[in-house]
Amino acid sequence: MFKTAYKARKYYPPGGTGFVTVNDVVQIMTQLMQSSITNEKYILVAQNLTYREILQKITKAFGKPGPSKAIKFWQLEVFRRLDWLRNIFWNSGRKLTKNSIESLRKNQLFNADKIQKELGHSFEALDGVIELSCKKFMEENP
């Protein structure tokens, strides 16, 4: 996602999903391993964002213009078929599958109330982590 945002594309997928930092995941896993809690499932999400919102945050951190136009579903389908042809002729591996397009299309909302109630965990803000990740990305990709 950072590589795509760094290229400052004009288009963004129509859906969205939940995001969490790796620091939160590690902290919660550690707390759970040290607790008496067993056989439970948790959803870890700091923030639900649309792909437009997350790409705008990342491009802003890179100092580039954010995406402004939504990709239509039919365009995603055309790209998927072109990706299939590219794979047939150049054996380059598929990048767009039916499942990936379906997930890009949906706005999936997640709720982390259960883990917050049981462990009292408050999630790290994404903005600071995005800034740090963009800085690191630019250092490694001059």
Please describe what this structure looks like.
The chain has 142 residues and is mostly helical. The protein is 55% helix and 8% strand. The chain has 7 helices and 4 strands, in the order H-E-E-H-E-H-E-H-H-H-H. It has helices at residues 2-6, 22-34, 51-62, 73-90, 98-105, 113-119, 126-140, and strands at residues 11-12, 16-19, 47-50, 69-70. The strands form 2 sheets. A two-stranded parallel ribbon has the order 1-4. Helix 3 (51-62) crosses helix 7 (126-140). The longest helix has 18 residues, at 73-90. It starts with a helix and ends with a helix.
Alpha-carbon Rg, integer: 18 Å
Q: What is the straight-line distance between the termini?
A: 17 Å
Helix share, percent: 40-55%
Unreliable residue stretches: none
Structural class per helix/strand content? mainly alpha
Specify the biggest β-sheet: 2 strands, parallel
Instruction: Give the overall form.
Output: globular
- Tell me the strand percentage band: 5-15%
Quick check: average pLDDT?
95
**Count of helical stretches:** 7
Give the strand line-up of the largest sheet: 1-4
How many beta-strand elements? Answer: 4
The SSE string, one letter per element, is HEEHEHEHHHH
